[in-house]
């Protein structure tokens, strides 16, 4: 806790007091670094596909308790200076010193501290908290603060665009500047007149969707230019805009195009050369719905679409039909999401300045146009005591410290545009949040989708925001309230009372959430009293961000508000190598649930083998829910995610970055329910993702006449009952043959693995030098063949398609059964046919062994060689008079080792997780809020 005392500084207002800081973690006279055991490590990061080195820096210095992953990510992402030069940072101390020095010096210069001693305490506490992974600033702080670059500290930006060509072109320019720096932005296009309205010249307007094309092309071009990450953007359109139907269907139509082009053989994968021909792929789309519209949906009434210039209704539509179109498009391609306009603006602290019309790309930052927000997230697991109580006072003090630092950052920060800088300095929006909620709940024996879990989450969120705003009010006494506070004072205080009232509605169930909630209530009481006296320093204080890269930096098991991804994780080891481990929170949870050590060990062993708890020895079925995860055998239901969001939303200034995941067999009605319940439960924004909705596979549907007729009207669209193959994975150890071959002097190796009960299931080809384009193409081709075989595509289909394919190298081989090949592919599939197809199947394709061809030349029937059905092919090879140089021997081949937690989940589930590959290192990414993050290198799909 802190208090204020008299102080003097040139920048401090007359009679104002500086903050008196208290120590939380540090000791007087002891530098925080001296309490840490430091060690040197080598960071070598490779692309697993070809073994090439993506990044290398040896001899870096980190605390011994930091994981290999956290070390790798911080070294490669956040250390500044050219690698191999003396200017390159090599120690975490240097990185933390670089950042904290700027915060502390700025605080001193601007009168934040009562004395130099308080400034030193602030500096030491901040260093301790960062080094011990108790919290982290968002990535732009680590990229920029203390360097020669502009001191940009914000990750979230909201732009604005008006109905003029000058404004639209300025929008393109501003987005480009933001993307160039590796950040993302959001914008509402509803001020642009619709394609159903006239221009002043008499012509018809183009409409906002047409201008989205230009912005999308710009984002697609610039996104790869940022040195830090791919850009991300959000496009919002109000539900009463006359072009809303076109907006809703935009990305769904493009998804159909992707499927058609992929089926025609074009490269439509992420980063593929042909994907650029598809539009609108660089933005998340959201429809801004009003209470009026949602009530019309509920009542089955008509809803009016209004002209932008006059506000008159120019078209009416059935609200249910429009709502159905939104759900149908989201079912097809995950877009659009929804933002609940009246709820957002009902919690708006600065309505006299302007409405909230848009959000950042992940929808957690919602505030004024032309503004930005810098983020920081707290690691909740750092406050779980050994006795499983929550360190309430430590959490309060850490929140005070972080809010103070975050507000200081706005004082020294640079911004991408003058308008954004002006608004942000005037309203000083902050975004404190947390990570590791899912791990905390499991460790304490609480199910994520339970009243107890939601009570703890709601209490922590209320405590964080109440403390943050109370500290903001104390800062207002020291350095003044935000510039826009005077005109918005009543509205701001009204929202503070709403937060406090929502806190009063939280119902606690046990000692853990009871203690947290009691302190939250005290903080809100102090907040209201202090705020009425001083005003507030910040128009916004809290939100829940994805915590992608910084979550890895803090060694968090779970990101943001998310539950645990799965019970088995991928872990990199010091000195190289990796292993699969059961989450460390599982044994702790089992202990809290009353299990003995012998039982815990048996259950953990079962989870390690199966990846889930169902039928685990000795585990009571009523405890299964504690171990429910985002993916796997017992995945949390979609409404379980929505209910958790609803529990914490009243305790946040902003919103929540989270995607509600639905299974592949979810219906359009399921999505309608999620969107509707999100409104009823008071969420501000909501996005969904149906598993595999973006996979470019045509659906085979048999429809009745009634169903076909029902699809004629938008309100009657029915989710098709799809028929999909099931993947049959090979066991970890499987019989295989290794074949060395040569085609026209080009040498290679082929490993063909079979199921134990026979049948080819996997092929890997080695051709060309490691790291070459050819080797990479063959690796990709091998994976495609293997996956298709496991999904049931017959080998004879592949043989029929690829035999006789002509390209170089072509010519003589060293295989006596296949003396000539028209290409490497021709040889490979002839060899596979000879090794794995029956004589009758091969005869139909015209593929024979040397001995079979000899019998044919002698006028004999080759089928006589196969009269005995149980004849062994190896015995046949040994009985032939021709000695084959082809090396063939049964070997036990281990399945490729997983390289990320997502791939570990795949190995246990027996199915492919719907997650993109990292464009930097090639490993499969894992969800982080509305984004994805790579555990291998820390790259994200757009959010910090």
From TrEMBL:
Residue ranges annotated as coiled coil are none
Can you name one GO molecular function term for this protein? ribonucleoside-diphosphate reductase activity, thioredoxin disulfide as acceptor
Top-level lineage group: Bacteria
Q: Which Pfam families match?
A: Ribonuc_red_2_N, Ribonuc_red_lgC, TSCPD
Q: Which reaction does it catalyse?
A: a 2'-deoxyribonucleoside 5'-diphosphate + [thioredoxin]-disulfide + H2O = a ribonucleoside 5'-diphosphate + [thioredoxin]-dithiol
Region entry Disordered, spans: 886-908
Give the EC number. 1.17.4.1
Specify the Ribonucleotide reductase large subunit C-terminal domain's residue ranges: 154-689
Which parts of the sequence belong to the Ribonucleotide reductase class II vitamin B12-dependent N-terminal domain?
A: 43-133
Q: Which cofactor does it need?
A: adenosylcob(III)alamin
NCBIfam families per UniProt: NrdJ_Z, PRK06556.1
What is the name attached to this protein's record?
Vitamin B12-dependent ribonucleotide reductase
């Amino acid at each position: 806790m802190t208090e204020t005392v008299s102080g003097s500084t040139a920048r401090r207002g007359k009679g104002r007091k500086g903050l008196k800081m208290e120590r939380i973690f540090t000791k007087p006279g002891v530098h925080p670094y001296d309490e840490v055991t430091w060690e040197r490590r080598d960071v070598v990061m490779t692309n697993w596909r070809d073994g090439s080195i993506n990044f290398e820096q040896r001899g870096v210095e980190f605390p011994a308790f930091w994981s290999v992953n956290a070390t790798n990510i911080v070294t490669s992402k956040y250390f500044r200076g050219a690698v191999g030069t003396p200017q390159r940072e090599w120690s975490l101390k240097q990185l933390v010193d670089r950042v904290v020095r700027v915060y502390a010096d700025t605080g001193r210069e601007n009168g934040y501290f009562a004395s130099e001693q308080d400034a030193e305490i602030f500096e030491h506490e901040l260093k301790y908290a960062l080094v011990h992974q108790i919290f982290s600033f968002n990535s732009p702080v680590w990229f920029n603060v203390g360097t020669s670059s502009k001191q940009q500290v914000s990750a979230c930006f909201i732009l604005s665009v008006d109905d003029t060509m000058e404004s639209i072109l300025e929008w393109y320019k501003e987005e480009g500047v933001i993307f160039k720096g590796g950040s993302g932005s959001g914008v509402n296009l509803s001020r642009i007149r619709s394609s159903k309205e006239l221009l002043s010249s008499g012509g018809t307007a183009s409409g906002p969707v047409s201008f989205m094309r230009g912005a999308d092309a710009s984002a697609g071009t610039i996104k790869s230019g940022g040195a830090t990450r791919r850009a991300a953007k959000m496009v919002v359109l109000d539900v009463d805009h006359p072009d809303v139907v076109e907006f809703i269907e935009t990305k769904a139509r493009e998804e159909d195009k992707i499927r058609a082009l992929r089926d025609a053989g074009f490269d439509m994968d992420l980063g593929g050369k042909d994907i650029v021909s598809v539009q609108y792929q660089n933005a998340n789309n959201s429809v801004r719905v009003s209470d009026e519209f949602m009530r019309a949906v509920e009542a089955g009434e008509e809803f009016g679409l209004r002209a932008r210039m006059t506000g008159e209704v120019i078209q009416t539509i059935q609200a249910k039909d429009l709502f159905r179109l939104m759900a149908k498009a989201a079912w097809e391609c995950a877009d659009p999401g929804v933002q609940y306009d009246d709820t957002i603006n009902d919690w708006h602290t600065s309505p006299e300045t302007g409405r909230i019309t848009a959000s950042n790309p992940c929808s957690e930052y919602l505030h004024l146009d032309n503004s930005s927000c810098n983020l920081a997230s707290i690691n909740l697991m750092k406050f779980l005591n050994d006795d499983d109580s929550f360190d309430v006072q430590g959490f309060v003090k850490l929140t005070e410290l972080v809010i103070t630092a975050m507000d200081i950052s706005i004082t020294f920060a640079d911004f991408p545009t003058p308008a954004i800088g002006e608004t942000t300095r005037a309203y000083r929006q902050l975004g404190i949040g947390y990570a590791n909620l899912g791990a905390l709940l499991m460790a304490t024996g609480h199910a994520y989708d339970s009243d107890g879990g939601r009570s703890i989450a709601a209490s922590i969120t209320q405590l964080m925001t109440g403390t943050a705003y109370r500290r903001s009010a104390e800062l207002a006494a020291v350095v003044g309230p935000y510039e826009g506070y005077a005109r918005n004072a009543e509205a701001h205080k009204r929202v503070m009372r709403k937060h406090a009232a929502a806190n009063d509605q939280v119902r606690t169930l046990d000692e853990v959430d009871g203690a947290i909630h009691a302190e939250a209530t005290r903080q809100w009481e102090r907040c209201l009293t202090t705020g009425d006296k001083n005003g507030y320093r910040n128009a916004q204080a809290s939100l829940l961000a994805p915590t992608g890269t910084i979550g890895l930096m803090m060694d968090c098991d779970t990101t943001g508000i998310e539950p645990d991804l799965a019970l088995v994780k991928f872990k990199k080891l010091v000195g190289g190598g990796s292993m699969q481990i059961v989450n460390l929170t599982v044994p702790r949870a089992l202990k809290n649930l009353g299990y003995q050590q012998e039982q815990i060990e048996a259950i953990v062993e079962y989870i390690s083998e199966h990846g889930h708890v169902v039928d685990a020895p000795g585990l009571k079925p009523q405890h299964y829910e504690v171990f429910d995860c985002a993916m796997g055998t017992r995945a949390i239901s979609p409404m379980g995610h929505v209910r958790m969001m609803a529990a914490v939303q009243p305790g946040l200034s902003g919103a929540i970055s989270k995607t509600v995941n639905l299974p592949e067999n979810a219906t359009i009605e399921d999505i309608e329910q999620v969107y509707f319940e999100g409104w009823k439960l008071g969420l501000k924004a909501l996005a969904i993702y149906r598993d595999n909705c973006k996979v470019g596979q045509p659906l085979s549907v048999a429809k009745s006449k009634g169903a076909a007729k029902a699809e004629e009207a938008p309100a009657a669209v029915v989710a098709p009952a799809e028929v999909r193959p099931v993947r049959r994975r090979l066991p970890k150890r499987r019989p295989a043959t290794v074949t060395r071959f040569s085609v026209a002097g080009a040498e290679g190796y082929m490993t063909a693995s079979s199921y134990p009960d026979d049948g080819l299931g996997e092929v890997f080809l080695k051709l060309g030098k490691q790291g070459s384009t050819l080797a990479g193409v063959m690796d990709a081709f091998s994976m495609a063949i293997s996956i298709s075989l496991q999904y049931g595509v017959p080998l004879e289909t592949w043989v029929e398609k690829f035999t006789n394919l002509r390209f170089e190298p072509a010519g003589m081989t060293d295989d006596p059964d296949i003396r000539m090949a028209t290409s490497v592919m021709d040889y490979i599939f002839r060899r596979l046919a000879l090794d794995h197809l029956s004589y009758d199947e091969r005869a139909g394709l015209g593929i024979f062994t040397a001995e079979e061809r000899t019998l044919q030349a002698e006028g004999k029937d080759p089928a006589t060689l196969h009269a005995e059905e149980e004849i062994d092919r190896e015995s046949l090879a040994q009985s032939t008079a021709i000695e084959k140089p082809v090396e063939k021997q049964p070997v036990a081949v281990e399945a490729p080792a997983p390289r990320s937690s997502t791939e570990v989940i795949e190995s246990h589930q027996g199915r492919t997780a719907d997650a993109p590959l990292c464009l930097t290192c090639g490993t499969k990414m894992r969800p982080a809020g509305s984004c994805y993050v790579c555990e291998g290198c820390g790259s994200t799909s757009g959010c910090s």
